[in-house]
Known about the structure:
By secondary structure, this protein is α+β, with helices and mostly antiparallel strands.
Amino acid sequence: LGSDPVISVEGHQDGGIRVVCRSDRWYSQPEAQWRDLQGQILPLASKNIAQEANGLFQAEIAVVITEESNQKVSCCVRNPLLNQERKTAISLAELYFPQDNPWTVALGVILPLMAVLMALASYCFWKQSRVK
C-alpha cells in the first residue's frame, strides 16, 4: 500500500482553483481519482502515473474546483490488486475563489463611456471654434 495522498493548492486556473494530489510507493499501478462530497468522480485536469526507478509507482492527479462545484473534495488512490485505498480530503473556503470586484466592472463601463463623451465634446469645441 502506498503513501497517504498529499493535497496541495496550486493557484487559480480557468475560473477555479487547481488542486493537486500526489501519492507514491505503490506496488502495482494504482488508480487515482478525485471525488466530490457525494462520492461522484470528478473530471481530471491532468493525470500522471509513473513508475519510479525502484519499480514502485507514483500518482499525481489534478482537478480544477470552481465555486459552483462542491468545494469539499477527496483524493482517492487505490491498489486494484489488493482492493485497498488511501484517501485524503480538502475543503476550500469561498474566499479563495476569484471574485469579480464591482468597482472593476463599474470602471470597465464608465471609462469607455467617458472617453467617448470627451471625444464628442472635443469635436464640438473644434467645430464651434472653426465656425467663429
